[in-house]
Specification:
Layout: H1 24-28, H2 30-45, E1 50-52, E2 62-67, E3 79-91, E4 96-103, E5 106-116, E6 118-124, E7 130-136, H3 137-150, H4 168-190
Nickel (II) ion binds next to helix 3.
């Protein structure tokens, strides 16, 4: 049986503490595999695009990512379910783009963050198999948001212009259309 985990909110020290790398042995344990299932279940129930282990009070370098026709992000391309263990991201080139982000640990606030357009990913999957891949565009932005969590950062730390901060209601009222157009351009350029 999977269970829903409590999501830490901004101000909770767990979001700022360093997270611990997993060994393949620890990853293989039944309790850890159950935790990963719970992480996925919690992400889906909260309609997040991703969820990091330390957002549910486990200071471990694991995150889940998935976008599947997400009503919180109606303009976003889908991302298949991905578990990253001990992820390391390396930006490729200088290209960056503006991404309007929100977070399950930051209630009712969104803001513009600059993200690398292309990043190389080195990680393990939930079975300990190596992941070596390159991600682009909106997928790259999501990976960066989640790995930031594992490094104790929130998207708010990277908002360059605090005037971009909006409530979700005002995002939908004043910004959704423009953001959907901008995301469309990113997807056209980078394929995701
Ligand atoms: Ni987040």
């Amino acid at each position: 049986m999977n269970r829903l985990l409590n999501i830490a909110q901004i101000g909770d020290p767990v979001l700022r503490e360093p997270t611990t790398e997993l060994t393949p042995d620890l990853l293989a344990q039944a309790e850890m595999q159950q935790f990963i299932d719970d992480l996925i279940e919690t992400m889906r129930a909260a309609k997040g695009a991703g969820l990091a282990a330390n957002q549910v009070h486990q200071s471990l370098r694991i995150c889940a990512i998935e976008v599947r026709d997400n009503p919180r992000y109606p303009y976003r391309p889908n991302i298949p379910l991905t578990i990253l263990v001990n992820p390391v991201l390396t930006p490729v080139g200088e290209d960056m783009f503006e991404n309007y982000e929100g977070c399950l640990s930051v209630p009712n606030l969104r803001g513009i963050v600059h993200r690398h357009s292309v990043v190389d990913v080195s990680a393990m999957d939930r079975n300990g198999a190596p992941i070596q891949t390159r991600v682009k565009g909106m997928i790259a932005a999501t990976y960066q948001h989640e790995v930031d969590h594992l490094n104790g950062l929130l998207f708010l730390d990277r908002v360059g212009d605090s005037r971009s901060l909006v409530t979700w209601e005002n995002f939908e009222r004043y910004h959704l259309q423009q953001v959907a157009e901008n995301v469309g351009k990113v997807v056209a350029q980078y394929g995701s």
